[in-house]
Amino acid sequence: MALALLAAAWAEARGGEAVAMIVDHGLRAESTLEAREAASRLAQCGVGAEILTLDLPHGPALSVRARMARYAALEAACADRGILHLLLGHHATDQAETVVMRAMAGSHPAGRSGMAAVVETNLTRWLRPLLMIPSGRLRATLRARRVGWCQDPSNFDPTYIRSRLRAYRGDPDGISAATRATSEAARAYGHARAGRERVLASWLADHADIYPAGYATIPDQALPPEALGALIRTVSGTRRPPRAGLPELAEAPRAATLGGVRIVPGGRLAPGRWLLVREIRAMSAEIAADPGVTWDNRFQLAARIGLSEHMTLGALGDDAARLPGYDFPDVLRRTLPALRVNGMLFAVPHLGYPDARTCDRMAISFTPAAPAACAPFEKTPDAWVG
């Protein structure tokens, strides 16, 4: 609520507009009424709001699934509206809890930088402008404006580790010395992380090649483990690189399989280099070729096309033997995305099969879950600290 009011005032002063998005997870009977009440309060303050309703079944890893579904819904809503900047309301208490939880889980130093102030995704730019602002100060802002808010009771449910940690820390307003120190430590880690990611991006730009067909090449020499991990993460479509075996492989690149990626000699495609391709056995199964769908966490089908209801999207696999004469080696061709109708091969856009016109209509873009390098992790700007 506080973020919506602050953002609306900031945007209005610059001739812009802010839209509040309220996610109703539907996990409690009262959540729909609370979402409507929040929208009503915002409307009374002159801020437009949209309620995004989710349908999440109860079960294992509920908090993780809810978070992923929430971000997906927010990004989709922004994309539909043509909105680039998605502001998230995480504050200093949230940041301190995140850092402590990651430390308890044995996170490496990069993880202890907490949540980033700026995150680039394929659809939006996430901004967290309140990371150094205590939660008590935000509530005081609402009280000063005589604006009420809804308190989610799950924030105090001891079932969740974050709630237990919050109760143990005993700092509901986020003003204790411990909270401040933890936030400052996260910012220091963020400084260091931003520097490392700039170095990583520079190394990748100078030495690695990433291609729209979902593969990459590296020189036949030792490389930074972070660079190899970033490339494996991108080629495999995962969000995090593997840990085990990564330093040894980076020190002496060789034929190997790691993290759902095969490393093989580049051959005629990349002489003198190593080729990183998706491991065929680790790829996702075929899915219905609905417009805009993403397969294997890496390839997205164009949303503008009209498709047969019997069309599927999956790996080219054994059908690669039917398409000889291309520059791609078999180990790569088998991993390419292919469209089939009633099980019969219809199109392989990355090979131009069957023709340019068909492939243009059936465009498939390489959009991995996490890019090898993008805007670096950003610390909380000093200007945001108050």
Descriptive account of the structure:
The chain has helices at 2-12, 31-44, 62-81, 92-104, 135-144, 161-169, 177-207, 225-236, 246-251, 330-333, 356-361; strands at 19-24, 48-53, 85-87, 118-120, 125-127, 209-210, 216-219, 256-258, 261-265, 273-278, 287-288, 294-295, 299-301, 311-315, 337-341, 344-347, 364-366. With 386 residues, the protein is α+β, with helices and mostly antiparallel strands. The chain folds into three domains: 2-192, HUPs (Rossmann fold); 208-280; 282-366, no CATH class. The strands form five sheets. It has a five-stranded antiparallel β-sheet. β4 and β5 (125-127) form a beta hairpin. The protein is globular and about 70 Å long. The model is unreliable at 382-386 (pLDDT under 50).
Short recap of the structure:
This protein has eleven helices and 17 strands.
Cα distance, first to last residue? 19 Å
Oligomer: single chain
Task: Catalogue the unreliable spans.
Answer: 382-386
Q: CATH homologous superfamily of the largest domain - what is it?
A: HUPs
- Structural domain count: 3
The CATH class name of the largest domain reads Alpha Beta
